[in-house]
Design brief:
The chain has 374 residues and is α/β, with parallel strands linked by helices. It has twelve helices and twelve strands. A ten-stranded mixed beta sheet has the order 1-2-3-4-7-8-9-10-11-12, with helices on one face. A hairpin with a 4-residue loop joins strand 1 and strand 2. Helix 5 packs parallel to helix 6. The longest helix has 16 residues. Bound molecules: S-adenosyl-L-homocysteine.
Length: 374
């Protein structure tokens, strides 16, 4: 990679002619599954039995589905549980409580997910697209372009795989469950809107129709596709919204987050504020701290101006992310002193601010670098 950034185009639609991932149980609502089972000439309740295996028992071996008659089992598994992805490798950090998995999808596309276990919760960071079309220059995934959208089931399967590992006591800390899901892996979730909403529904559908998670434990992170943020508010799903702002002024944000050339800082922040107002969920502003680029004290003040201009009723908090430099990139992490000063200035203006922990940094957690290196 050279020092002079070559800007990539923004890409909203996946390349034409890609084959679709196979249809899977997790792509469908409970009603659709039942209909499909009937279509196969099977009693409708077989769909529910299969869902119980997949979502509640987290079984992936058909031999364990002993309540299904052998003939029906074969037909159901072939029609509804096709293999979606194979794990190429898993990297561990933090004594095994951070695990990043590189997956190969049916067509060879590579994506990754990360499991992070904390004393009080387990968070799965998932990918929503193979690659990404949003072209953010500091992001490894953004520099690779968009290969294709992932299906609902491909997104859900990453969480189910994590849930299985926890249930089978493969993660230090004893058997456990996934409590949180963040759409902060590869891809722009709101550019793959339908599949992502489907995945959120499967994650939150009550067992055995889905994983039965709380929507409050799910965070959708976006570059700021304002119309899609409004659409998300209409869904009536109280997921947490994270807006990747990274700069409070259009001049710099045009460069760091190229979608800003379509939706300006004020449009993105206004959509986020409206999301908070309508869903009563506090919005998170993501801000990757880049040395000498966006970490000046005056930019902290400007960020505070922008956010407080929408009122101070606790609608927002800021999450600073220490930049994880991509190979050959001209951006690097901020000096800790500048970071502290940035936090101080935001807090002085009453804006709750956290600095994200750098879990899994040595395995390039959550920044698209494993798949990019492949
Ligand atoms: N497309 C979504 C999800 C992407 S990843 C979005 O942009 O929000 C989640 C977060 O990681 C985003 O805030 C993204 O800007 C940030 N990110 C990407 N590359 C990074 C890097 N090298 N270091 C730190 N944060 C990074």
């Amino acid at each position: 990679m050279s020092d002079t950034p070559r800007s990539l185009p923004l890409v909203f639609d996946e390349p034409r002619g890609r084959r679709r991932p196979p249809r899977h149980l997790a792509d469908m609502s409970a009603a659709e599954r039942k209909e499909l089972a009937s279509g196969l000439g099977l009693p409708g309740f077989r769909a529910r039995q299969l869902s119980t295996h997949y979502f509640s028992r987290l079984v992936d071996d058909p031999a364990e589905m002993t309540d299904l008659p052998a003939a029906d089992r074969e037909q159901l598994v072939a029609g509804l549980l096709p293999p979606l992805m194979t794990s190429l490798r898993t990297l561990e950090a933090d004594g095994g409580t951070t695990r990043k998995t590189l997956w190969r999808l049916f067509d060879g596309a590579l994506v990754e997910s990360v499991l992070m276990r904390y004393p009080d919760r387990v968070t799965m960071c998932v990918s929503s697209q193979a690659g990404c079309g949003m072209a953010c220059p500091f992001c490894a995934t953004g520099q690779g372009g968009l290969q294709r959208n992932m299906s609902t089931a491909e997104i859900v399967e990453q969480v189910v795989a994590g849930a299985r590992a926890l249930a089978r006591d493969e993660v230090p800390g004893g058997p456990g469950r996934v409590s949180n899901v963040v759409f902060m892996g590869m891809g722009e979730p709101l550019a793959n809107y339908r599949a992502v909403i489907g995945a959120v529904r499967r994650l939150t559908d009550k067992a055995p129709d889905g994983l039965g998670m709380s929507a409050r434990g799910i965070t959708v992170s976006t570059v700021g596709l304002a119309p899609r943020i409004r659409q998300l508010a209409d869904e009536g799903l109280p997921v947490t919204l994270a807006l990747s702002l990274h700069a409070p002024d259009d001049e710099l944000r045009d460069e760091l987050v190229p979608i800003n050339t379509r939706f300006k800082v004020h449009e993105a922040v206004e959509a986020a504020w409206e999301y908070a107002r309508r869903t009563k969920r506090r919005v998170s502003i993501e801000y990757a701290m880049m040395r000498g680029i966006n970490d000046q004290g005056w930019r902290a003040d400007l960020l505070a101006d922008v956010l407080t201009s929408y009122g101070d009723w606790g609608w927002v908090h800021v999450n600073l992310i220490p930049l994880n430099p991509t190979p050959g990139s001209r951006w690097t992490a901020s000096d800790p002193r500048d970071e502290r000063e940035f936090v101080r200035r935001l807090e002085a203006r009453g804006i709750p601010t956290t600095v994200r922990d750098t879990r899994g940094r040595e395995i390039d957690g959550a920044c698209g670098q494993l798949a990019a290196a492949e």
